[in-house]
Design the sequence.
């Protein structure tokens, strides 16, 4: 067994005696360099172990669920205001849609990378309502009167 | 594990169908792991908690478009990694000591077994971890602290398994160099034992 094999196993945080079996153990017994490398890796593991997992500080859950409630309320407000959205904002969201869809929107891992765009997509899901609002706003009042006919 | 047999995938699917309690259960299951991952990526508890909250808000947002192709852990760690890397980029001035010039030496009067020294070591370690290049740091944390396999880590980072091994190797070498004095103490400790 060569030193490179042993030290590759070590560099990945593996104990060569376990990772490489009897051949690894035999090599370590006869190789001072690899024993030194093993000692260094063991020391690094002890150093890394100094940072143990901790719970978040008190109030974390309260803060999170308050943020979540606030986020939901904001989304509701955005939906109400949607009818007043300017066309440039819609155009930007449409560009986002094209980019996002272009990267296979069905993959959960792609979704994980593109969550910034999800909110824009939610807005686009309500485009019919926006278009209806815009159509109504642009209708000529005289035209309405003409359709309605004489009173 | 196939996505359909992953209990957390099933919880996420239940959530995507409108079961809000399923989201709360996922939050409780994964909260500490996400908080610790983000804390190590960003170097301090406050930033880590802020990032972790945003990760769960993004998970909430993802419900309507969730279609599992991988394990839930892979999906969640990908959100977390992506968000932490964005935060690191955004607050890059805070990490100006990434060039390795930071002082991570232990104070002379402390011993490795001393409680204060442990706190000092922990701080030095956090700074060294958060100072690692983005993908090196993420790969090391995912493999060492979060127990992901090289295959899962590769999926989270969107790189090959070989690239993950290389990232972990380089991260460990960089840490050994940066934490040299602490390493000496740790070696001394093993000799004493």
Sequence:
């Amino acid at each position: 067994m060569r030193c490179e094999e042993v030290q590759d196993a070590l560099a990945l945080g593996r104990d060569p005696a376990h990772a490489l079996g009897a051949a690894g153990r035999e090599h370590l017994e006869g190789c001072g360099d690899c024993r030194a490398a093993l000692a260094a890796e063991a020391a690094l593991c002890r150093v890394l172990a100094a940072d143990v997992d901790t719970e978040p500080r008190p109030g974390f859950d309260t803060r999170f669920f308050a943020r979540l409630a606030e986020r939901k309320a904001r989304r509701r407000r955005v939906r109400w205001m949607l009818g007043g959205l300017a066309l440039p904002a819609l155009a930007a969201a449409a560009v986002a849609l094209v980019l996002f869809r272009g990267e296979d929107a069905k993959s959960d891992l792609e979704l994980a990378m593109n969550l910034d765009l999800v909110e824009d997509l939610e807005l686009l899901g309500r485009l019919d309502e926006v278009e209806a609002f815009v159509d109504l706003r642009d209708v000529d009042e005289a035209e309405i009167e003409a359709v309605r006919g004489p009173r | 594990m196939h996505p359909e047999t992953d209990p957390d995938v099933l919880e996420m699917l239940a959530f995507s169908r409108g079961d809000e309690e399923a989201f709360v259960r996922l939050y409780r299951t994964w909260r500490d792991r996400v908080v610790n991952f983000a804390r190590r990526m960003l170097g301090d508890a406050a930033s880590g908690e802020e990032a972790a909250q945003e990760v769960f808000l993004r998970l909430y947002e993802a419900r309507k478009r969730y279609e599992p192709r991988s394990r839930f852990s892979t999906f969640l760690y990908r959100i977390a990694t992506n968000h932490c890397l964005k935060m690191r980029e955004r607050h890059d001035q805070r990490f100006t000591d990434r060039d390795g010039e930071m002082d991570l030496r232990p104070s002379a009067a402390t011993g490795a077994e001393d409680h204060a020294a442990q706190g000092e070591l922990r701080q030095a370690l956090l700074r060294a971890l958060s100072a690692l290049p983005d993908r090196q740091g993420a790969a090391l944390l995912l493999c060492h602290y979060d127990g992901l396999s090289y295959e899962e880590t590769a999926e989270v980072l969107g790189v090959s398994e070989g690239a993950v091994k290389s990232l972990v190797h380089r991260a460990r070498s960089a840490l050994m160099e940066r934490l040299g004095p602490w390493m000496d103490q740790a070696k001394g400790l093993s000799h004493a034992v």
Q: What stands out?
A: Confidence is low (pLDDT under 50) at residues 93-101 of chain B. Residues 111-192 of chain B form a domain with the Arc Repressor Mutant, subunit A fold (CATH 1.10.10.10). Residues 34 and 104 of chain B are 26 Å apart (CA to CA). Residues 20-42 of chain B form the longest helix (23 residues).
